[in-house]
């Protein structure tokens, strides 16, 4: 499976809200710019209409008074009322020449719009567009009243309006992001409890339960989580109980087989040795040539008895309840060291007090160590095996390291390892088997001393 990058949900949602807010601000700014441009054009058109009407009245007054030296056109009266910075008033004659022109200067501002905004605004709008209205008198056209605004002034006004919006955006957007992130962090705080609960479930703590949540969606997750944990806990408890019964039945079969071997084969081998000894005495008197055969029968019977003792010890070791776990394991290790004749060296170390362990845990730990030593010595071909049994914080940890063949299929997946897994599962523990850091194999077993009731995670407000 590919390792996909992980993003914090709060950061991702906050960035999306910020992007949407910025887009909304941009749309609002565009709306204001469009509205301001339309308003400027409407104002210019209205001023052009006023100028044209004023000039018509002036011409009519000239005709009415029959002034031989008419003062037409005269833009001064109307300019006193409508002039604004950057505004130009003009009268264009019938032939297109400008007869009179009056312009107000553009104010000098320190915050001139940036070139990029000027190019953007000129590309979208036409700030230098002129408004013309005809000047009519008795159905004849005397000329046109022309009104325009300096493009730089109109662009500066648009930049001023846009700058106010940008300032509002610069203040509101970070504040909005902080508030959204805080709200999301509070709303998603229960997800930490869910994540912690899943981690505990993955670690084998099936007693974990989630508390009630305020959100309906998280409450549904909580119900499913708790139901799943309870179902898994029940299933594992039933499996552990069945495994315990199977292990108890297996141990009972081993004891029964050990009694059969001891009673039948042991007595038969003892009888064979006795008969061999009697036959040797008779052969010593009557047929000395049979002494070698009698001694061979006795040696074979003795060897079989030694083998039988070893098999009986593995089938039915000394009672752990009587000797204790520490003494039993020390005897087991000493026995392997004695049988190895220097080929394999076994070492064991204890850390903790094991006298008060329940009988079921002690017996299963002894069997687990017995199977592990057998796998390491016989199947993995190890020449050095180190065992460490520790007890701390309410659990027992068993570590077995060897220098054998870690890839041996029997050592990894044989019946011995399967039996160990079943015993560990019966004790609600954990088992791992992998290659050691410096070669060989490493077996790790962790067994809890007691199972607590359901643990409900604290609900973070």
TrEMBL record:
- Give GO MF terms, alphabetically: phosphorelay sensor kinase activity; protein dimerization activity
UniProt GO cellular component terms: membrane
> What is the first-listed, main subcellular location in coarse terms?
membrane
Q: Does the keyword Transport apply?
A: no
The record's subcellular location field reads: Membrane
Q: Does the keyword Transferase apply?
A: yes
| Keywords assigned by UniProt, alphabetized | Kinase, Membrane, Phosphoprotein, Transferase, Transmembrane, Transmembrane helix, Two-component regulatory system
Note the SUPFAM superfamilies from the entry.
Answer: ATPase domain of HSP90 chaperone/DNA topoisomerase II/histidine kinase
Signal peptide stretch: none
Cite the PANTHER family for this sequence.
Answer: NITRATE/NITRITE SENSOR PROTEIN NARX-RELATED, SIGNAL TRANSDUCTION HISTIDINE-PROTEIN KINASE_PHOSPHATASE UHPB
- Recorded protein name is Histidine kinase
Q: Which organism is it from?
A: Bradyrhizobium manausense
